Amino acid sequence: MEKDLDPSLQKHSTALEKAFDKIMTPFEEFIHHETTSGILLMVCAVIAIVIANSTLYADYLNVLHTSFSISLGPWVLDKSVHHWINDGLMALFFFVVGLEIKREVLVGELSDIRQASLPIVAAIGGMVVPAALYYSINAGGEGVAGWGIPMATDIAFAVGCLILLGSRIPKALLTFLVALAIVDDLGAVVVIAIFYTDQIHTNALLLSALFFGILIAFNLLGIRKPLPYFIIGLCLWIAMLKSGVHATLAGVLTALTIPATTKYDPIQFGQVMRTLLDKFDRSHIPGKCLMTNVKQRSILQTFENGIHMGESPLQRLEHNMHAPVAFLIIPIFALANAGVPIEFSGMGDVLADPITIGIITGLVLGKFIGIAGFSWIAIKAGFGSLPKGVSFSQICGVSVLAGIGFTMSIFIGELAFTGQPENLLMAKTGILLASLMAGIIGVTWLLMCSKPGEDSQQQ
Questions:
Q1: Residues 316, 308: Cα–Cα separation, whole Å
Q2: Distance from chain centroid for Cα 456
Q3: Which are the contacts of 263, defined by CB distance < 8 A and separation ≥ 6?
Q4: Number of domains forming the structure of the chain
Q5: What whole-number distance in Å separates Cα of residue 179 and Cα of residue 155?
Q6: Nearest-CA neighbor of 429 among 335, 359, 361, 374?
């Protein structure tokens, strides 16, 4: 019994039990990462805004505009730090987005058309209406190119706000928001690919198609190791960078080719693992630890290899990549892009600018009208049904919360207003104000229409 163990062994035994005590589903792990990422994102955004309104702003801009180049013989790739972040690091963000989209379509909330119909229709409304409102306000003006900015929802921020409400929120509402946001991400990817593309260079685009074909061939041939995909994915990124199509889309295309099947079926996998565990137990030598027991160490290594074979490459890569993207790449993006200098004396002019008005109207009002309105139409027409335990009032609250458009909205803003610093400043100000308004109104709305312990009562 544990109480008869040596105190040091008992301590290790307790730690081992705690390590395996909590079994998280892939969805729960996803939510955990997004929630923590949302908090970190908020902190980095505040830091960037503070720096932009201090004496450090000039140094901040100097760092972002510092040139950094990679050369290989006569071939040179020269970009500013800001471009390396937005074009390079964000390709990894889009890679994870691509993995999430593929998982959701294959085995997640979007795999069953009956369950997926409501969040899909809601997401379409949440993209179309904000874009239309922005366009109507900026039609004929120099800010019209920013129509795609209010289409996006920041999944990390929105999920983080929803999690803050705890047991008041049914799990089904959280699932609805995640499914909606992932469809929203897919829509943003399509918009970037089609509408925010520079002049097309045909040779580089054909080379991109060749690399994408190689990635598809890897999948069809059953190649499961990540390295070949990353090498060709890097080549695809470089080719797309030269083609005029935004290079970050290489991340999505690479993700879509990652194999989603497992090597073993569940029964076979369980039999192999049980056999290994029996060998591990029989190999125990009293008084010897794992480091000095060569047999047990070898079995553990085999165990690890077997687990990798039991997982799909898509599942393993999403698990391994989500944390560095959520906790490193997205916060770096926020630090590099959220630095907005605020001049309170000229705030009236900023708030009166059509770009700022269009973004605030699109994100705060457009998201609400689009998501709640299209959801109501879908439910009344029989295209979809409310998730179990979720009220339509809560759907309305999430519709407002989806107006938090931070990461993807800023990213699209950078594309829409390249070389237009004044318009970009208006866009970023509108995004920050709209996201703040949507977060406060959405959380307040859900607090008013949800009761404490509501989720636990439905389990």
A1: 8
A2: 28
A3: 224, 309, 310
A4: 2
A5: 10
A6: 359
Residue with tokens 């979809």: 384
Beta carbons within 10 angstroms of residue 56's beta carbon? 13
Given a contact cutoff of 8 angstroms between Cβ atoms, the answer to whether 182 and 242 are in contact is no
pLDDT tens by residue, 329-382: 988 998 998 888 887 777 888 889 999 999 999 999 999 999 999 999 999 998
d(CA 308, CA 306): 5
d(CA 74, CA 106): 44
**Tokens 């959801």 correspond to what residue?**
375
Q: How far apart are CA 186 and CA 170, in angstroms?
A: 25
pTM listed for this prediction = 0.80
Q: Residue type at 176?
A: F
- One-letter amino acid at 100 equals E
CA 288 to chain centre: 45
- Do residues 325 and 303 share a domain? no
In a domain, 365, yes or no: yes
CB 196 within 8 A of CB 188: no
- Domain range holding 427? 24-197+246-261+312-458
H-run or E-run covering 368: helix 367-381
